[in-house]
Amino acid sequence: MNEYNNMNQREGIWEIFDLDGHTKCRGSFTNDKRNGYWEHFWIKGELIWSGYYKDDVRQGYWEIRDSKSRLFEKEFYL
Description:
Blueprint: E1 3-4, E2 10-17, E3 23-30, E4 33-41, E5 47-54, E6 57-65, E7 71-77
Antiparallel strand pairs: 1-2, 2-3, 3-4, 4-5, 5-6, 6-7
């Protein structure tokens, strides 16, 4: 987790934390670009939104949640 490739680019699964040590987001990188499923969290750990990236671009359906992790909205990206 949280590794760099030989070109000093983020690679594989990453978990990114805020200054207080709470998980801010988690997902995977390929050649320093977000790829695959990603999750972003409220400060108390509840899911804010989740969806897929391809080469740092949002793809398909993304779910947005309120501060109590209730589904609030769905967005679709081409």
